[in-house]
Amino acid sequence: MALTEKMKAFALAKMQGKSNKEAAILAGYSEGSAQSRGSQLASNPEVVAYLASLNLQGGGGIDHMPLGEAAINAEIKDMKDVNTALEFFQYLYRKPSIPLKIRMEAARNALPYETGKVAEKGKKEQRKQLAKEATQGGKFATLENQLRN
Question: How far apart are CA 85 and CA 91, in angstroms?
Answer without folding.
Answer: 10
